[in-house]
TrEMBL record:
Binding site for GTP: 234-241, 259-263, 281-284, 347-350
Domain Hflx-type G: 228-389
InterPro entries according to UniProt: G_HFLX_dom (IPR030394), GTP-bd (IPR006073), GTP-bd_M (IPR032305), GTPase_HflX (IPR016496), GTPase_HflX_N (IPR025121), GTPase_HflX_N_sf (IPR042108), P-loop_NTPase (IPR027417), Small_GTP-bd (IPR005225)
Protein name, UniProt field: GTPase
Coiled-coil regions listed: 194-221
Phylogenetic classification of the source organism: Bacteria, Bacillati, Bacillota, Bacilli, Bacillales
One GO molecular-function entry: metal ion binding
Membrane-traversing stretches: none
Location in the cell: Cytoplasm
Keywords: Coiled coil, Cytoplasm, GTP-binding, Magnesium, Metal-binding, Nucleotide-binding
Length: 444
């Protein structure tokens, strides 16, 4: 790890993008990254629900492991309120310092977001690198970003987070070396002055705006083509990418890790009736998702806001899945996407008890790896849409094959009979009242 940090520091001196090359080499396995030994610390307050608190700690452990850290110890202190300067009490920090010295800990991660002064004070007290939950999540996002837009969004979030923390942070940043909390496009800029960082933030915002404009033009074309859009959303690691791959027969990155998908993917899918739609896989949500990330990823998250139907993926086997659902609903509300029709998809049914009951309706319980369940899901999607749409029935002359094709593609056709004597098709089904075909059918 020290050699890697030295390679990073020396190389960055000669070229500012060297850190990105090192990170890429790490991901490709060219450089073997040693796991950092991590101590997690949390403050439990009187009003916090015990089960929720334990769940947040387990989530912090998972986040740490996703960032290639190894959790050696978890320290919890019960307090009436967070210590204004040190987060935890001085006595508890003394205990932590002793443990660090005896067990060669590399990094301390705090379960909450720290103020700039708290981060500096704890780092000085313990004489070790200290990051908080927000910086850990930013680090994971930096690992996951692959597209130009994703990298820009992560760098923007990192710089916005670091800007108020620059004063007096040089020592803590140097303690971090090249490990957890320093990765990503912004890592070579951490020691620069405020004005340079502010200029970089302004530049990134302009670039993101350009990409967002292109994305908006693409959305506009999809709307003009009247493409029906389905968005898969859910708490991170709920199985969204697995479902996306099974539905579309594609190969997006699929792993039992948090935030495996950052850049939204869109594919075409055909439902049993012949109805065609576009389906998108999106970034996973998490409780206490940093506001800087929500702001930076707004253009990506707006894919959800443009959807005609939301598939809310839930890991039903998770002990805190109800809270996860609430987190997703809250973020959808912040994105002004809570009005969109939703189907709740409870995943991992093979791990559930027989008496499991969905919290939110309409709902279906599936295993994303089961082809039969994927067929059931398709049928359920059509069932949900039929409740939202308007019924129609019409006669189409045999010579109007194009009209039949359009109805098959843009509506849920439930009946199609050829009347030989009249040379017409009797067609029955359900159609989106916002689609131009609906108005054409009304006229006929």
């Amino acid at each position: 790890k020290r050699a890697l940090a030295l390679l990073y520091v020396v190389g960055s001196h000669f070229h500012p993008t060297f850190g990105m090359i090192v990170a890429l080499m790490e991901r490709r396995g060219i450089l073997m990254e040693q796991k950092e030994h991590v101590l997690l610390a949390a403050c439990r307050l009187p009003f916090q629900d015990d089960e929720r608190f334990q769940s947040s700690l387990e989530e912090l452990r998972s986040l740490t492991e996703t960032a290639h850290g190894e959790v050696d110890k978890i320290v919890i202190q019960n307090r009436n309120k967070v210590h204004q300067a040190l987060y935890l009490g001085q006595g508890k920090l003394e205990e932590i310092k002793t443990y660090i010295e005896e067990h060669e800990i590399d990094l301390v991660i705090i379960n909450d977001e720290l103020s700039p002064s708290q981060t500096k004070n704890i780092s000085d007290f313990l004489d070790i690198a200290v990051i908080d939950r927000t910086q850990l999540i930013l680090d994971i996002f930096a690992r996951r970003a692959n597209t130009k837009e994703g990298k820009l969004q992560v760098e923007l979030a990192q710089l916005q987070y670091l800007l108020p923390r620059l004063y007096g942070q040089g020592k803590n940043l140097s303690r971090l070396g090249g490990g957890i909390g320093t990765r990503g496009p912004g890592e070579t800029k951490l020691e620069t002055d405020r004005r340079h960082i502010q200029r970089r933030i302004d530049d990134i915002r302009k670039q993101i705006q350009q990409v967002a404009t292109q994305r908006e033009q693409y959305r506009k074309r999809r709307k003009e083509n009247k493409a029906f859009q389905i968005a898969i959303v859910g708490y991170t690691n709920a199985g969204k990418s697995t479902l996306f791959n099974r539905i579309t027969n594609s190969q997006s990155f699929e792993e039992n890790q948090l935030f495996a998908t950052l850049d939204p993917l869109t594919r075409q899918v055909q439902l049993p009736s012949g109805f065609q739609a576009l389906i998108s896989d999106t970034v996973g949500f998490i409780q206490d998702l940093p506001t800087t990330l929500i702001a930076a990823f707004r253009s990506t998250l707006e894919e959800v806001r443009e959807a005609d139907l939301v598939l809310h993926m839930v890991d039903a086997s998770h002990p805190d899945h109800v809270h996860h659902e609430k987190t997703v609903h809250k973020l959808l509300k912040e994105l002004e996407a809570d009005h969109i029709p939703m189907l709740n998809v409870y995943n991992k049914k093979d791990l559930l008890n027989e008496d499991f009951m969905p919290v939110s309706l309409p709902a279906i319980t599936i295993s994303a790896n089961d082809p039969i369940d994927i067929k059931r899901l398709f049928d359920k999607i059509e069932e949900v849409l039929m409740k939202e749409w308007e019924p129609y029935q019409t006669y189409v002359h045999a010579s109007k094959g194009d009209m039949l094709h359009r109805l098959s593609k843009h509506s849920i056709m439930t009946e199609r009979d050829f009347l030989e004597e009249d040379e017409v098709y009797f067609v029955k089904g359900w159609i989106n009242p916002d689609h131009p075909l609906y108005h054409q059918l009304r006229k006929e």
